[in-house]
Design goal:
CATH class: Mainly Alpha
Strand order of the largest sheet: 1-2-7-4
Number of domains: 1
CATH topology: Cytochrome p450
Bound molecules: protoporphyrin IX containing FE
Shape: globular
CATH superfamily: Cytochrome P450
Order of helices and strands: HHEEHHHHHEHHHHHHHEEEEHHEEEE
Largest sheet: 4 strands, mixed
Structural class: alpha+beta
Number of strands: 11
Length: about 450
């Protein structure tokens, strides 16, 4: 999961343009100085490389890192039709967006050509530390084996299942008597963050504080100092808890991370901290968006909501389709360390590459009527959880959170409806979901 937040959610107008210029500058500085590939002779904001000019971007009025694109799926459908790999603007510079399902799938599966580490070392490591996403090869295998073992089946089937439904009910209790609610503020964000804190068995903590740290950590590309401060504060908070779990382990994930062993190897403190720093953005920011998009989908497709009220066994199919139809991770960043030809297109060494996950999920070569929300379609594949080496470690948990939430809403608020469907929509180009979901229902 990408840690870049869609800046448009926080910034507007001239602020956004200023930020974009600053990021273009930082980005070019990075390419010129840090990668050592030295492809660019940088000449100021908007400057072009000297040795090898960037191609003109498609849809040059859109920056895929920061712009709200109301008709994103239409824009992507057009790009996908015309190009398997499209040069587009990203952080003010040209990046190569891979648009079609088979090509994105193959690119995920080739971590040598498009190493996850190269992208995340730049986007997240300065503030999150060297997370599992910043690793490749043997280092990733070792770390992934340790954390996967910590996510053992018993953790999911016993420890986690015991609180998923009660937490959903407790949150619905807080507004069920009101007859109205705003589900992003009052349910989806709270549910996703609460599940992660319960998974780790963090002591009851101020939700707002944890959310501020979580948001701060992923804001690094836009607010490096704020992100560093969030990282310091969060690490200090987590340290005392990790120390305690090393000697007094419980049933939770943090205890498992503290004591897990594979071939006599254990996770160091810093490996645990960087994993925790990743868990909030990777586990909560994605899931609350997925929850929001799923609720939006069923509330705008009434027959689906009624069908799951009659038959809860249909719920997994609805969750599956919601994840395909609106992937919370719409675009994932990669980097091409070497010249490569992909799907017939030349991508020069040192280029930023974008995996168009949400574009791939709506590729008409794979999905019939791809723009339609149809839980009963035959095609079951999608790329929302990635693919290959870095495939999402929390996919099972994320699905369960979405299934449980839909069941609880179907049981308790069957007359739930959007207050003003015209005013609500799904937005974001990197991470995607509804910003708000105002709803009404008969008070209970
Ligand atoms: C709907 C919710 C979720 C979505 C759409 C999602 C999506 C993704 C994607 C696309 C990746 C691969 C990123 C890449 O290749 O660059 C990923 C990785 C990861 N996800 Fe998730 N995720 C979700 C929920 C969760 C949850 C709930 C957790 C943990 C509790 C989690 C933990 C992780 C971790 C640790 C990785 C890194 C794995 C590695 O690098 O080996 N995710 N996720």
């Amino acid at each position: 999961m990408n840690v870049n937040r869609d800046a448009a959610q926080r910034h507007t107008g001239s602020e956004l343009r200023r930020d974009r210029d600053r990021r273009a500058l930082e980005h070019a500085w990075f390419l010129a100085n840090e990668t050592g590939w030295g492809r660019f002779g940088y000449s100021g904001i908007g400057g072009r490389c000297v040795a090898m000019p960037d191609p003109s971007p498609e849809v040059p009025h859109i920056d895929f890192a920061s712009d709200e694109v109301p008709d994103l799926h239409d824009v992507l459908a057009d790009l996908r039709e015309r190009h398997a790999v499209a040069p587009v603007l990203y952080h003010g510079s040209v990046a190569y967006l891979i648009t079609r399902f088979q090509d994105v799938h193959a690119a995920f599966s080739d971590d040598e050509t498009f190493p996850s580490a190269s992208a995340y070392l730049r986007h997240s490591a300065p503030v999150m530390g060297k997370t599992i996403q910043c690793m490749g090869g043997q280092e990733h295998r070792r770390n992934r084996a340790l954390v996967s073992k910590a996510f053992r089946p018993k953790l999911m089937t016993e420890f986690v299942e015991a609180f998923l439904t009660p937490v959903a009910h407790q949150l619905v209790d807080t507004f069920a008597g009101e007859g109205q609610a705003e589900l992003v503020a009052q349910y989806t964000t709270r549910y996703a963050f609460t599940v992660i804190t319960r998974l780790l068995d963090f002591p009851p903590t101020d939700f707002e504080q944890l959310k501020r740290w979580g948001d701060g950590l992923i804001d690094f590309p836009w607010d490096p100092e704020g992100a560093q401060q969030a990282s310091r504060e969060f690490t200090a908070y987590a340290k005392t808890i990790v120390d305690d779990r090393r000697v007094n382990p419980g049933e939770d994930l943090l205890s498992a991370l503290a004591v897990v062993e594979v071939e006599s190897e254990r996770l160091s403190d810093e490996e645990i901290f960087s994993f925790l720093r990743l868990l909030f953005p990777a586990g909560a920011d994605t899931t609350y968006r997925g929850l929001g998009s799923m609720l939006y989908a069923v509330l705008t497709h009434r027959e689906t909501f009624e069908r799951v009220q009659r038959d809860a066994s249909e719920i997994p199919a609805v969750v599956q389709e919601a994840l395909r139809w609106e992937s919370p991770t719409a675009i994932l960043p990669r980097f091409a360390p070497k010249d490569v030809k992909w799907a017939g297109y030349d991508i020069p060494a040192g280029s930023e590459v974008l995996f168009g996950v949400t574009s791939a999920n709506r590729d008409a070569q794979v999905f019939a009527q791809p723009q339609q929300f149809d839980p009963w379609r035959n095609e079951r594949e999608f790329l929302s959880f990635g693919q290959g080496l870095h495939f999402c470690l929390g996919s099972h948990l994320a699905r369960r959170e979405m299934e449980v939430s839909l069941r609880v809403f179907a049981e308790r608020l069957p007359d739930l409806q959007l207050t003003d469907p015209q005013q609500v929509g799904i937005s974001g180009t990197v991470l995607r979901g509804p910003k708000a979901l105002p709803v009404r229902f008969a008070p209970r």
